[in-house]
């Protein structure tokens, strides 16, 4: 069987090694193995944000995404992020193997099977840790403690919270860190635009900008939704031009901003403004909201044009900030060992007591989940990852 036949038999997986740039191919035999081992070790020793950025920019990852249903791809990226954090980085071939095993699981389960999916995901993660640590048997008490401790240390003690953002804010974040009191837009301007819209009955035209733009920054420990937030950052602008209840009817393109599709976004705006400008006069006389004035219509369109230039240009690609847990005091978990988990689980009569269940508790149920930061996090605790663009994520 040729390498091409083997790749096709595996459904397209097996590309990471093919696309990895491991240096010159001239050495042969033991010398070649030593060169490859050295290069792999160098790559694994790189900062985790460098490893993640390289993975998400790779052709093999783009091809792997296309093997999953379109609706599941953002979740797959989240799984890849969680895997690399839990494994402390790791070689790309191992990650690809993990995703190849995850693919039939995701395809066969719907979103109502969340617990079953998390359990299977953690089973595969346990297998990956067993391989990485060279453990012959994962069922001994010693092995369970090693596996549990390895994931806990990487995911919690030395782990990260996640903050998705628009690439236009990268320079500011690298310089100032995550600062809840720093915004690169005028809050008064946003308030004035909201007032115009609400005068004619459009509630929250900028989403929750009045909350998320005032003294807090949202971060979370669940990677499932990081891509959606990144592609739609800042959320208030995505809500304004596409992804809101105001534009949920027929003819609107709710992903126009995520795709950075100016023509579609402008069409949304023109359609919406027209609807707000030509309401039935009889209905208005009977107590309905009044129409937008011509000046107000021009003001809304000017607001759109200004912020599209600022927020949807070449530097506006989706980004992920890995925020060190220790910087915000979230680097502890309630259970410090597998034995302690097992004791508590049996005491409380859990229906299942297992290593995958313990790992799931560390990564999800014992997590602190979404929190609002009110104090600045210094730049040295924030590590920035380049995510794929929307076209790559959702290619046919």
In short:
The protein is 54% helix and 6% strand. It has helices spanning 3-9, 16-19, 29-45, 48-56, 59-65, 73-86, 92-108, 114-133, 141-157, 170-176, 187-199, 209-212, 226-231, 235-241, 262-277, 281-285, 294-311, 338-347, 355-365, 390-393; strands at 160-166, 217-219, 318-324, 371-373, 382-386.
Question: First CA to last CA: what distance?
Answer: 29 Å
How many separate structural domains?
2
Number of helices: 20
Q: What percentage of the residues does DSSP assign to strands (E)?
A: 5-15%
In terms of structural class, how would the helical and strand content be classed?
Answer: mainly alpha
Q: Please summarize the sheet with the most strands.
A: 3 strands, antiparallel
Strand order of the largest sheet: 1-3-5
- Average pLDDT, all residues: 86
Element-level helix/strand string: HHHHHHHHHEHHHEHHHHHEHHEEH
Morphology? elongated
User: pLDDT below 50 for ≥5 consecutive residues: which ranges?
Assistant: 1-11, 18-26
Task: Describe this structure as you would to a colleague.
The protein is mostly helical and 396 residues long. It has two domains: 3-158, no CATH class; 183-317, no CATH class. It is 54% helix and 6% strand. The chain has a three-stranded antiparallel β-sheet. A two-stranded antiparallel sheet has the order 2-4. Helix 7 runs antiparallel to helix 8 (114-133). The longest helix is centred in the first third of the chain and has 20 residues, at 114-133. The model is unreliable at 1-11 and 18-26 (pLDDT under 50).
């Amino acid at each position: 069987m040729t390498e091409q036949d083997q790749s096709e038999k595996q459904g397209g997986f097996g590309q990471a090694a093919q696309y990895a740039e491991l240096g010159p191919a001239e050495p042969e035999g033991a010398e070649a193995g030593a060169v490859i081992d050295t290069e792999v070790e160098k790559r694994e020793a790189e900062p985790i944000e460098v490893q993640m950025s390289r993975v998400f920019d790779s052709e093999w990852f783009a091809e792997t995404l296309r093997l999953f249903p379109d609706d599941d791809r953002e979740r797959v990226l989240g799984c890849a992020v969680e895997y690399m954090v839990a494994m402390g980085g790791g070689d790309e071939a191992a990650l690809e193997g993990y995703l190849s095993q995850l693919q039939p699981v995701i395809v066969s389960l719907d979103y109502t099977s969340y617990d079953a999916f998390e359990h299977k995901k953690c089973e595969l993660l346990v297998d990956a840790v067993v391989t990485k640590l060279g453990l012959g048997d994962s069922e001994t008490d010693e092995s369970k403690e090693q596996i549990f401790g390895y994931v806990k240390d990487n995911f919690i003690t030395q782990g990260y919270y996640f903050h998705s953002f628009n690439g236009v804010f990268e320079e500011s974040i690298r310089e100032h860190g995550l600062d809840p009191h720093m915004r690169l837009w005028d809050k008064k301007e946003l308030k004035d635009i909201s007032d115009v819209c609400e005068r004619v009955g459009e509630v929250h035209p900028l989403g929750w900008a009045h909350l998320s733009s005032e003294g807090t920054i949202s971060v979370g420990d669940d990677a499932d939704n990081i891509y959606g937030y990144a592609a739609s950052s800042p959320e208030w602008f995505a809500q304004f031009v596409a992804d809101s209840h105001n534009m949920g009817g027929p003819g609107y393109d709710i992903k126009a901003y995520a795709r950075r599709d100016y023509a579609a976004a402008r069409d949304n705006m023109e359609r919406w403004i027209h609807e707000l400008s030509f309401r039935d006069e009889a209905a208005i006389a009977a107590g309905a909201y009044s129409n937008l004035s011509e000046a107000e219509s021009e003001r809304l369109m000017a607001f759109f044009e200004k912020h599209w230039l600022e927020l949807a240009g070449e530097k506006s690609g989706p980004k992920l900030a890995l925020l060190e847990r220790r910087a915000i005091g979230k680097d502890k978990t309630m259970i410090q060992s597998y034995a302690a988990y097992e004791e508590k689980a049996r005491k409380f009569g859990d229906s299942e007591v297992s290593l995958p269940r313990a790992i799931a508790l560390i990564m999800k149920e014992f997590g602190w989940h979404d929190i609002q930061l009110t104090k600045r996090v210094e730049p040295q605790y924030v590590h920035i990852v380049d995510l794929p663009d929307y076209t790559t994520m959702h290619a046919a």
